[in-house]
């Protein structure tokens, strides 16, 4: 009887709604899976990752690549006792970011540089009205909501180069990368520290930008052997298979790669 009622309910209510509003239904399903959750740090799952998951490993060193004006760095500094290295190449964003040293002096190290796969001077494309969309990638001009009409040459380093000059750093607990489509290059310039310093967690933002740069979640997973992939949700992490098409949807989302031996430590 229960099965008959279920079928009748689906036929009477669900199927007509799907036929009338397929995009609405799909959008809702994708949000439940962790996509299109950009509104704030709670909705994106970043707050849960930092306050609940990261704190289980008592982080000492965290890295914020693409720090913008410092929202993520501030979350790290307030929720943990870690030392935070934050990279931001745009002078206007860096000025705001560096203000965090007034409150967290001694634990916060802002660096006015971009991060990529090599040490160089490079054009960054941006808009004064949306500095968080700034990117080294010219392909992001294909993203409908991005209008980067300005450009400026800035200094770019690699994480390998930077941390070679930080002998006191013997391990990294978290690397967060939000570089508007340039995440793959950041990781490509971090192969030595990934091998030697063995970051416990590596968070990346994944979006439509990567479609135009011909990168998939699987592309990142191939760079990060020895890590398991999880998608961020407001109150939990969900394990994902990077080879699955359902994990390679080009809509805003955040994924965290967790080192194999740390997965059980944090309860996943």
TrEMBL record:
<dbReference type="GO" id="GO:0008168">
    <property type="term" value="F:methyltransferase activity"/>
</dbReference>
<dbReference type="GO" id="GO:0032259">
    <property type="term" value="P:methylation"/>
</dbReference>
<feature type="domain" description="Methyltransferase FkbM">
    <location>
        <begin position="64"/>
        <end position="221"/>
    </location>
</feature>
<dbReference type="InterPro" id="IPR052514">
    <property type="entry name" value="SAM-dependent_MTase"/>
</dbReference>
<keyword id="KW-0489">Methyltransferase</keyword>
<keyword id="KW-0808">Transferase</keyword>
<dbReference type="InterPro" id="IPR006342">
    <property type="entry name" value="FkbM_mtfrase"/>
</dbReference>
<dbReference type="InterPro" id="IPR029063">
    <property type="entry name" value="SAM-dependent_MTases_sf"/>
</dbReference>
<protein>
    <submittedName>
        <fullName>FkbM family methyltransferase</fullName>
    </submittedName>
</protein>
<dbReference type="Pfam" id="PF05050">
    <property type="entry name" value="Methyltransf_21"/>
</dbReference>
């Amino acid at each position: 009887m229960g099965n008959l009622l279920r079928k009748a309910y689906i036929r009477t209510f669900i199927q007509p709604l799907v036929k009338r509003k397929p995009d609405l239904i799909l959008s809702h399903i994708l949000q439940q899976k962790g996509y299109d959750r950009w509104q704030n740090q709670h909705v994106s799952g970043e707050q849960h990752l930092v306050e609940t998951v990261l704190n289980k490993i008592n982080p000492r060193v965290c890295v914020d690549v693409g720090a913008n004006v410092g929202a993520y760095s501030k979350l790290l500094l307030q929720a943990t006792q870690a030392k935070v290295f934050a990279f931001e190449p745009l002078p206007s964003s860096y000025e705001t970011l560096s203000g965090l040293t007034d409150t967290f002096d001694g634990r916060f190290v802002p660096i006015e540089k971009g991060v990529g796969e090599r040490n160089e001077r490079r054009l960054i494309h941006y808009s004064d009205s949306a500095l968080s969309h700034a990117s080294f990638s010219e392909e992001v001009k294909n993203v409908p909501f991005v209008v980067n009409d300005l450009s400026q040459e800035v200094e770019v380093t690699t994480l390998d180069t930077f941390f070679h000059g930080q002998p006191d750093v013997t391990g990294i607990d978290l690397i967060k990368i939000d570089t508007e489509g340039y995440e793959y290059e950041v990781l490509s310039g971090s192969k030595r520290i990934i091998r030697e310093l063995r970051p416990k967690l590596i968070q990346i933002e994944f979006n439509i930008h990567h479609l135009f740069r011909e990168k998939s979640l699987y592309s990142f997973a191939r760079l990060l052997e020895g890590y398991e992939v999880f998608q961020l949700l407001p109150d939990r992490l969900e394990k994902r298979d990077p080879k699955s098409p359902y994990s390679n949807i080009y809509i805003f989302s955040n994924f965290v790669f967790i080192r194999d031996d740390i997965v059980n430590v944090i309860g996943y």
